[in-house]
Write a structure and sequence with these properties.
Layout (H helix, E strand, L loop, with lengths): L7 H9 L3 H16 L5 H8 L3 H51 L6 H13 L4 H19 L8 H14 L2 H12 L9 H6 L8 E7 L4 E7 L4 E4 L4 E3 L2 H9 L3 E7 L1
Antiparallel strand pairs: 1-2, 1-5, 2-3, 3-4
Helix pairs in contact: 1-2, 3-4, 4-8, 6-8
Length: about 260
């Protein structure tokens, strides 16, 4: 019998939110992925008893969650390997550094860069330590997907600003993977990716609309010309009207989603 690992946390989140039907749809989609079975969105819409537009949205969300899940295990695998390798090489590496210092050798560029990053990380603050760990996670994802990285103070500061903007490291990871596999443009260095907010291009903005008596939040679907609220309500809204409301401040971006 063949046992598989799948994104249990995401399924639990859906069920906790009362979205049991959606969680079952995800498990169905995951099974087809593992078996290599390809079906059209209309097939899934009929199978899950939802509209074609809902099936389209669910499948896009399922893909994003699977990207995060696979990226997590890729990261765990690399970290485990590096830790095992580091333990076996620790003694010889220490002896080599001591010998280099005794001989008065100048550190090479890579060692200097490593030293600078170490100084950035010198902290006992738990929140800062967690932020540093997320920075290293992002670097790993970026490098393993073919991106170029320089571990320096400027890149770290750009990361801090990006986290203040996006809040969620998983969104940065997902957007970086999409960017690095986007054949339409040349991949940017990580610092440029963060400083120029390129990550925003690969995320879905969450908007807030000011109405006469209240506010409503959700996402804008340009293809279907409608605003889709977080409570699954639809407001018909063509592109020109949407842009006009954005310009006069009645619609504003309050966050991002995968």
């Amino acid at each position: 019998m063949n046992y598989k690992t799948y994104p249990v946390d995401y399924i639990n989140e859906l069920r906790a939110a009362g979205k049991r039907k959606k969680s079952m749809a995800f498990m169905d989609y995951w099974h087809d992925l593992e078996m290599g079975e390809y079906n059209a969105e209309r097939f899934y819409a009929k199978s899950w008893n939802v509209s074609p537009s809902t099936a389209h949205e669910w499948i896009k969300e399922f893909k994003d969650e699977i990207d995060k899940f696979l990226a997590h295990w890729q990261l765990k695998n690399e970290q485990h390997y590096n830790n095992v390798k580091k333990l076996s090489e620790q003694k010889s590496s220490k002896l080599s550094r001591e010998k280099a210092r005794k001989l008065g050798e100048v550190k090479n560029t890579a060692e200097q860069q490593s030293s600078e990053v170490f100084n950035i990380y010198t902290t006992t603050n738990k929140e800062q330590l967690e932020l540093n760990r997320k920075f290293e996670d992002l670097i790993f994802i970026y490098q393993t997907n073919g991106g170029k990285v320089i571990r320096d103070k400027e890149t770290y500061e750009a990361f801090i600003k990006a986290m203040e903007d996006i809040k969620d490291i998983n969104l940065l990871k997902a957007s970086s993977i999409r960017h690095l596999h986007d054949n339409r443009e040349k991949p940017a260095w990580l610092r440029n990716f963060l400083e120029n907010m390129i990550y925003r291009r690969y995320l879905t903005p969450v908007y807030e609309i000011k109405r006469k008596t209240d506010y409503v939040t959700g996402k804008y679907n340009k293809e279907l010309n409608r605003f889709e609220t977080l409570t699954n309500e639809y407001i018909e809204l063509d592109n020109s009207t949407f842009e006009r409301l954005m310009a006069n401040g009645r619609i504003k971006i309050i966050g991002y989603a995968a």
